[in-house]
Structures are given as C-alpha cells and as structure tokens.
Design goal:
The chain has 412 residues and is α+β, with helices and mostly antiparallel strands. It has helices spanning 3-33, 48-65, 78-90, 106-111, 128-135, 157-162, 172-186, 204-214, 235-249, 258-261, 264-272, 285-289, 331-341, 344-354, 367-372, 376-384, 395-410; strands at residues 41-45, 70-74, 98-102, 115-116, 136-137, 140-141, 144-150, 152-156, 194-197, 221-222, 230-231, 276-281, 300-303, 317-325, 357-358. The strands form four sheets. Strands 1, 2, 3, 4, 7, 14 and 15 form a seven-stranded mixed β-sheet that branches. The chain has a four-stranded mixed β-sheet with strand order 9-12-8-13, sandwiched between helices. Strand 5 and strand 6 (140-141) form a beta hairpin. The longest helix has 31 residues, at 3-33.
Amino acid sequence: MSVDENDSMAPPLQRRTSLVLLLLLLLAQAGCGQSSAPRMVFAVGGAPTELAFWEEVVRDFATETGQPVELLRRPADTDQQRQALIIALKAGMVDPDVVLMDVAWLGLFAASHWLAPLDGVERSAFFDRILEQVDVHDGRLLALPVYLDAGLLYYRRDLLEQFGYEQPPATWQTLLTQATTVQRAMRQHDPDFYGFIWQGRQYEGLITNFQEFAGAQGAFVSASAPPYRLALDVPQNRAAWHLMHDMIWQYRISPVFTYTAMQEEETRRLFQRGKALFARNWPYAWALHQQPDSPIRGKIGVTLPPAPAGGERASALGGWHIGVSRFSDVRPLAQAFVRYVCSYAVQKRMVLQLGWNPGRQDLYNDPEIRQQVPHIHVMREALLSAQARPLVPYYPQLSAIVQRSLNSVLAG
C-alpha cells in the first residue's frame, strides 16, 4: 500500500472511532438515567442472626417506601467495626449513609462532627435521661438508641430459698454474706462452686463492672466546675477497687482466674452449668439460661446490681445507637430510615425475634413483650438510673489506662 493510500483512509477510520466513543458515552448516560432510586447504605455488624434480622428490616423498608437500602456488613468484632467507620467518616466518604454505633463511640463521633442532626423525631417515646446522656450534643439530637443494655445481677432463686434468703441482695455487703454462706455449703459436694462470678479480664467489660461496684456516686466523677476534668481517685472508687480485689483474694467467692479469663461468655457458661450463686452479666444471658437444655432453666432470677455502702445502685449503660453520617448524599432518606428502625413496630419485632431491649421506653409496657420477657420491668428500672461511660473523644485511651490499672489491682 502506498503512502497516498494511507493518507486517504485515515479520516474515515478516525470518524468511525469517534462515532463508537460517542455511542458508548450515550449508552452510559442512558444507563445512569435509568436509576430510579438513590443509593443508600447502612453499615452494621454482628452475629449471623443479627445480620439476618437487619436484612429483613431493609427489605421491608424497601417494600413499604420503594427505597432500597444496601446493607454494608461489618465483622462481629466491635473494634473492627469502629475502625472501619472511623476510616470512612474521617475521609468524608458519602457511604455509609446510616451507621450503627456502640454507645462508647458516640463521644468521639460527635466531637469529630461526623453525625448529622436528626429531624422529625418524637423524643417522648425514648428514655429522656439516656438521650441527654448519650445522644444529644450541644443541644442537637445526633443519634437514637436502637437497643439498650444495662448490667444485671443474675441469681439462683432456688438456692437462695433453700438457704432461707427471701430476697436477692440489695447491697454488696449482703451479697458477700449470702455468697459466703451458700458457697461454703455447696462446696461440700462441689468444690468448683463459687458465690459470685463477674467480668475481670483486662478489656472494656472490666470498666462496666467497676462502674457497678462503685455505684451511682463513683466511677468516672466529673468536677462540678471548669475545666470539668474526670476524677478516679475518690473514696467510692477506692472502696470499689478494694472490694473487687478482696472478692478474689480475701473472701474467695470469685475465682482466681477472674482477672485473666472472665468475660461475658465465660461468666455465662459457668453460671449456666450451675457453678455459681450470683453472676453479673448483660440481659442477653437470660434467654440462653432459659433454653430447654440449660441446667438452671426455671431456677434463676434477675435484679439490679447491689449498692455500695452508703451509696446508690448503678447499672452500666450499654447498647447500640443509630445515626446519619454528615457526609451522606441522601440525608433526608437516611433520616427516614433511622425513624423507621426506631419505630414501635420494628423495635417490637426486634424484642420478640432477638430478645434485645428496645430503645423506646413505651415498649416496656407492651403486653406481648411483658409476657415473653417477664423481667422486662427490672430492665426498665435499671435503664432509668443507668450510668453511661464518659462521652469524651479520647475515651478509648482513657479506658485502656483504667483497664490496665484496675486489672493489676485484681492481680494483686
């Protein structure tokens, strides 16, 4: 082929290439125009049963509203969930639009201005004290409680009756008396029986146990005047730390491995095997203790944690809250989804299907819930006085310091 022939063919080839590129561009634009619903993403982690529940919720929301929700599944590990959210929010990413947060994260997320204020929420349906402690920052409602936790004291009702005790302990001193008496008698035929088991390993659960030992006037105490620093070296806390140590080493009603191994599930399994009189745990343990194959089924009761000497009872506040990212590109839709998740009907399903304690206080008097969860009134009482951990942006660092110090006390 000659040079003159190449020159004559070049323009038609360029024209054909340009035409193909134009057609591809038009097809891409047409495809984008066919998207009828904006993309909304909900980031949530948890166990398989929990993720299955959330899949039902987003599917029902899509059916009722025509707005699909993409479920961004996170690991069950809470530290991994928190880290993934921090990366996305710190980068200002538009997704996820809606986030599920542990109560201990809210101080950081609010101080970092990562959450958008929630509009159109009927606040009277929720525990006002919890909203003010946790969800309201600088006068703005930034999150809502989806489900709530509070520390509880589980006890063997049958054993207390057997040894002549009519009521579970209302104070730590009474718990010591009852636990010592029953343990001494039970160990005549079961040397592995303990009076009281709880969470003492170096992790976040140790902090919540410490809150309950210290009572309503202890734990993280804020100064009453600026600069409002948190204080730990107060008499209530010194008494609590001594008591926690002495239950292991002096009274010996708690196992030596409390400070090395005891977390929620270790406590739950030991109590469920019939190896303890009292156990501190979260509400989730109730349903497991009442399973058909549980040795303690029908033999237990639940009450608030005891009060320290001269103080008032306190349950550590736990649970998960829902909010909207400030960087969401579908903020009105995201807020509608938050209101849907926190509606009466959805939260009632959550209680009946998962056994979670609802964030709405108006569900605690629901007849169907009271029948299925007979101790729901105890849970409501605990929530009315539950103590949140400090909602400061540096709480993870603060918690790590206190965990190490307190665990070393338990180790002697």
